[in-house]
């Protein structure tokens, strides 16, 4: 830090040189790079939410009552579970389930008995997760949680498709699967996209919880970098600046929300092109 500050101060003066050296040190480069984890989790979580939403909506509209009941339980139970609890529970439960399966083949009964109930049952069964694995689990978890919201939106949008078109499709001999995919799903986007945009915003907000899964995301780095910083060579670099780093995160999420709103508005207009929608939004 001191050498970099001296170099940049020689080029741009002491004040600007300090800020250039400070904002380009290794920790800040890692902070900037951690944006990728937020974006990956948001995009992958949104994709999983869309997939689980389609499956949940299809289940709720199914004529097979056990499947319809499963869809009802999924969309109502998951929406009532706090996001933090689900994000903490699912990755941990999945990790321990994998370790339990590994223990069946890798751990001897004697080793398990010697562990005296400790977890994992033996050292060989320990599944060491890194950032990619935790990021994948976080994305699936976000998909499960917000897929329930998406399923509720999609099932309502599918019911909004003109009943006459569904009856005409059945009269022409289309199978139940064809009626669902070629008529309900194709036309429901015009009704579902405004609601799905809200679900996407919830997914974006939930990415701030990635640090709970040991992922060094932008929130974790903002907390680390904003804390009082001291260096032996430079002394006290700054005091408690967490408010400034959190302000940067506010601006980042507001910008991401703004871009998302514009994208969904464009998609909605495209989906509604040529369709007569009651109460058509701009």
Name the poorly predicted regions.
Answer: none
Order of helices and strands: HHHHHHHHHHHEEH
Which range does the strand content fall in? under 5%
Please tally the helical runs, counting DSSP H or I stretches of 4 or more residues. Answer: 12
Q: SS-based structural class?
A: mainly alpha
CATH fold field value of the domain at 34-79 and 133-271: MetI-like fold
Major sheet strand order = 1-2
Strand segment tally: 2
The gyration radius over C-alpha positions equals 25 Å
Provide the CATH architecture of the domain at 34-79 and 133-271: Orthogonal Bundle
Q: State the fourth-level CATH superfamily of the domain at 34-79 and 133-271.
A: MetI-like
* Bulk shape: flat
- Termini distance? 52 Å
Largest sheet: 2 strands, antiparallel
CATH class of the domain at 34-79 and 133-271: Mainly Alpha
**Taking all residues together, what is the mean pLDDT?**
85
Element layout with pairings:
Elements: H1 2-12, H2 14-23, H3 26-33, H4 35-60, H5 65-77, H6 83-106, H7 109-115, H8 131-160, H9 163-171, H10 176-206, H11 218-226, E1 229-231, E2 235-238, H12 242-271
Antiparallel strand pairs: 1-2
Description:
The chain is 74% helix and 2% strand. It is mainly alpha-helical. It has a two-stranded antiparallel ribbon.
Compact overview of the structure:
Helices cover 74% and strands 2% of the residues. By secondary structure, the chain is mostly helical. The protein has a domain at 34-79 and 133-271: MetI-like (MetI-like fold, Orthogonal Bundle).
Keywords:
282 residues, mainly alpha, MetI-like fold, 12 helices, 2% strand
């Amino acid at each position: 830090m001191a050498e970099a500050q001296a170099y940049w101060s020689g080029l741009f003066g002491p004040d600007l040189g300090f800020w250039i050296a400070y904002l380009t040190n290794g920790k800040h480069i890692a902070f900037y790079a951690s944006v990728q984890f937020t974006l990956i989790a948001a995009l992958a979580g949104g994709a999983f939410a869309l997939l689980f939403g389609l499956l949940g909506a299809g289940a709720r509209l199914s004529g097979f009552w056990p499947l319809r009941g499963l869809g009802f339980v999924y969309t109502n139970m998951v929406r009532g579970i706090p996001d933090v609890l689900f994000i903490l529970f699912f990755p941990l439960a999945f990790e321990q389930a994998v370790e339990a399966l590994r223990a069946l083949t890798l751990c001897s009964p004697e080793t398990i008995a010697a562990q005296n109930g400790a977890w994992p049952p033996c050292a060989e069964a320990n599944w060491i997760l890194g950032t990619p694995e935790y990021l994948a689990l976080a994305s699936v978890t976000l998909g499960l949680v917000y897929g329930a919201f998406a399923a509720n939106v999609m099932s309502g949008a599918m019911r909004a498709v003109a009943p006459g078109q569904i009856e005409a499709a059945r009269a022409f001999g289309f199978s139940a699967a064809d009626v669902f995919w070629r008529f309900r799903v194709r036309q429901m986007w015009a009704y579902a996209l405004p609601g799905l945009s809200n679900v996407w915003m919830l997914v974006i907000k939930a990415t701030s919880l990635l640090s709970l899964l040991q992922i060094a995301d932008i929130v974790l780095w903002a907390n680390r970098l904003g804390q009082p910083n001291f260096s032996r060579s430079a002394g006290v670099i700054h005091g408690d600046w967490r408010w400034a780093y959190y302000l940067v995160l506010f601006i980042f999420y507001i910008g991401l929300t703004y871009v998302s709103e514009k994208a969904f508005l464009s998609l909605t207009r495209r989906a509604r092109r040529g369709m007569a929608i009651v109460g058509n939004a701009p």
